[in-house]
Here is the input.
Amino acid sequence: MNMFAEFSRKAPNRVFLSILLGGVSGVCYSLLIPLILSVLKPGDMRFDEIAQAPTRIASLEVSNAPFAMVFIAVCLFILVSRTLSQVMLTRVAINVASQFRERLYQQIASAPLSALESIGEARLITALTTDVPRIVMGARLLPDILISMVTLVGMLGFLLVLNSDVFWFVLGCIAFGALSYQVPMMIGRRYFIGARRSFDSLQGSIHGLIRGIKELKLNDTKRQAFFDSVLMAHENEVRRQEKTGNTIVRSASNYGDLLSFFVIGSIIFIFVNYRVISNQELVGVVMALLYVTGPVAVILNFIPQLSISRVSMQRVATLFQEIPAEAIAPRQEPAREWDHIRFEAVGYRYDAGGSGFHVGPLDLRFDKGEITFIVGGNGSGKSTLGKLLTLHYRAHGGTVYFGDHAITDESIGTYRQAISAIYSDYHLFDQLLGVADEGLSTMVDHYLRALQLDSKVQFRDGRFSTLALSDGQRRRLALLASMIDDKQLYLFDEWAADQDPTFKAVFYNQILPGLRARGKAVVVITHDDRYFDLADQVIVLGDGLVSRIERPDRVDATIAHGTWMSDPRDADIFDEPVLEAL
Ligand SMILES: Nc1ncnc2c1ncn2[C@@H]1O[C@H](COP(=O)(O)OP(=O)(O)OP(=O)(O)O)[C@@H](O)[C@H]1O
Here is the structure.
């Protein structure tokens, strides 16, 4: 991916105009020297005649007034055109960066969950927070580099007019300098690539530090080991690579800085002995070369930074390639009515790069108006089955039916809309997104009371007043959001694990039966064997396969405990004494 090509593709007109302005500004910049020389050397045939007598302009005596005016005009023009060029190209750069991020957001949102799980959070966050700003930084340098290049070309043109021998000599020196400068730059770039790669691991360790702070605080030995062999190992690796890369690149760029002086020295000490050159020409050449020192320094100093940007550009490009688009047809069929979900020989295997764990083949059925418990030992494949059921994972074999409809690329998107799931690694948003406003506050307040959260959280202007809650309370708030969604299939992955016994009972004896009574298909991944009787079917998993399916004689908890967790949309239950049934 070429940064300049990307810019040109995004905003060709503006990029062209800014290059034009940058180029013109560079030409004007390179015209300043002949202009000054022509004032200092009146009578030189190469330059126009200039006025000798001072002219009064606004009580100031000005020599060579016409030249002075041209000089000021050129300076002002440089100021305006350069600024415009920089501002325009920087704006394009900011747009490109923002579009990069947006493309990443879109790609993340439309990638299969399995691909995101295997890429890992650390890499995605680093791309968004480190690589994209580096790309912008590189883009911001482009106008300066461009202007300096044009100045350099203009100055070479001036040398050609002055003395063609000098021109060829300087050109040869620049070619040699540029080539000899490239070798260390390439080596330095390798170190930057290495540092960038190590940065992903460092990011992962930083996550470990922040998320694992509680464990680390309780164990000094563990903390020390984590610092020595994980966090600081990555930190040192990044530091080492960046230092070495910078040392090489800095040395090369200083060498580049002095390039103009090497050329000047070669001309005044060596060249003059081999070719005829007048003193006036020599002064002109030296002035031109001194003048060009700045632009050369800009080009050479900014190139290292550009190479850092290029590394980031490549990382983002690789990431784009690694995140596959999910196989979902752009036009989705409307969902048909369904009363059950059926698995027919459904199988799923984690990539060989992951655990290689395999689930299935599974033949299962989940009915609306029934509660299914999925039980089994740790690692038996319960959550994997859950993700197959909620259509987050696509089966690698077999077919998932919603009613009589086999899920395909053309329908998976619409059938997903019928599902609400709370996984153990759920994310709680501080607002209810995509829900109609009408009656929302009343409904949320009802559920807040029912879930005993009304003294902790308020719902105002579409947001929850706080998410600073206990684990169990946060999970209740996630349940509230799920209830508001009012879907047809509910999946709870160990939802009740961190609820107190009272609320656990509420969940199993009231919330689940309430959902069943409302005709939802309810699937619960659980270890709470005390409540197994409540289920219509219990699927026992072992090592990715169904060990057995039980259908306990259930107590109809809905009838036993009323409609405590009913949807306020269904009935007028606002006056019901909450938890009275307990
Ligand atoms: N993202 C993943 N990448 C690779 N392998 C995975 C991934 N997630 C789970 N696995 C593998 O699949 C197996 C089953 O995991 P799963 O989460 O389905 O088990 P579970 O029954 O829900 O366990 P638990 O009761 O501990 O939550 C695990 O042993 C693990 O080897």
Q: What stands out?
A: The chain is about 60% helix and 10% strand.
